[in-house]
């Protein structure tokens, strides 16, 4: 190591680490639940009210299954908008579970937006839902959807029969009447809170639960939340929209996000699966640490490895969780250990927990693993200590000579955290194999458990001599 390159000379290469602020964690906001029977356009209306395509929409009933909350704003007033699955009082099986989630959303809301198909008119199911809402005594805004023209307003007028006051004709698809509907929602909301919460507070740590379909992601979230927060069914692909929940674990509040299972590459997916994959990819970008869940009773698949690679490439902290441990016998455990050694060598630094979402076994070990991964993700090594380490490393293990030249590391500094980014200023190019060796030794010396490390190389440019 030499002193001919100073950190000040490369300050422009070392961006300041941005503050990570979650605007959604600014205190309790009023809640608006959008309910209605299947396929009346609830998710389309939610997207219209949000002004962006957030909820997964497809022209088939039953795409939305869980309570999905979004941050919304209209006329300067912020509120939480909750999309729900189809509410069918006569449903059975998984549809009954979806209905139960819609009922819970309505019970917890400050205002309920009841969506009815104005073209079809009020059905028996609509009247049954209306009776439930009238008994609840909550403010209800009746949205007569699919009124695409002035002539359709006569159909909307027939919905007075539901006994829920004035129906607001809207077209969720085209946006017609959505402003009047939002004005009615704001008028029904409770008054603004008297206490203003500091917007700069970082809020709970964000944890994404990822994995391929049917590995138990929703079951794990329900187990950690201590309630049936999301719909669980043996059918793969039950979860479509990301579902987030504030959960108290280890004496602290965490924001856990259940995601749709990643079945295949996003560009190869279609329909609701395509948009669900996009939402899952967006969750990875927004989270701080990802729990990648695998089925311990089955061999590791290409999908498992692809999801792990997505997390590493996004620079997020990582915890590996192997679910359904209650189904694993001694033979399978030995085979699994070999699979992990062979296929997950790239992420040997990630904490690993073996859990059973069904029985609750070892789920308490998730919090220490999350803490370890987040600590590694936020580790910062002082520049002096880092250069002392590299001085000893290069002296003991210099880079191999290539083309008659000996590449040298002149100076090193950690540019940022979350994830740790180490910049090496060198005389020339460093081979990938040597960089892997450097990363391994960095982990041995400083930890960085549970976090990827980004190592960037900056080659020294030759200064032209003045004649």
Could you explain the architecture of this structure?
The protein is an alpha/beta fold. Helices cover 31% and strands 20% of the residues. It has helices at residues 42-50, 94-108, 124-136, 153-157, 178-188, 217-225, 271-286, 302-314, 330-343, 366-377, 383-396, 432-446, and strands spanning 31-35, 68-74, 77-83, 111-117, 140-145, 167-169, 205-210, 243-249, 252-258, 289-295, 317-323, 352-354, 409-416, 421-426, 454-459. Mean pLDDT is 82; it is low at 1-27, 59-63, 193-202, 235-240 and 266-271.
Describe the structure using short key phrases.
467 residues, elongated, six-stranded mixed β-sheet, single chain, alpha/beta, disordered N terminus, 12 helices
| N-to-C series of helices and strands | EHEEHEHEHEHEHEEHEHEHEHHEEHE
Mean pLDDT equals: 82
Which sequence of strands runs across the widest sheet?
2-3-1-4-5-6
Shape verdict: elongated
Tell me roughly what share of residues is in helical segments. Answer: 25-40%
- Helix segment count? 12
**Major sheet description:** 6 strands, mixed
| Computed CA radius of gyration, to the nearest angstrom | 27 Å
Percent in strands: 15-25%
Distance N to C terminus: 30 Å
Judged by helices, strands and strand pairing, the structural class is alpha/beta
Could you name the ranges where pLDDT drops below 50 across 5 or more consecutive residues?
Answer: 1-27, 59-63, 193-202, 235-240, 266-271
What is the count of β-strands? 15
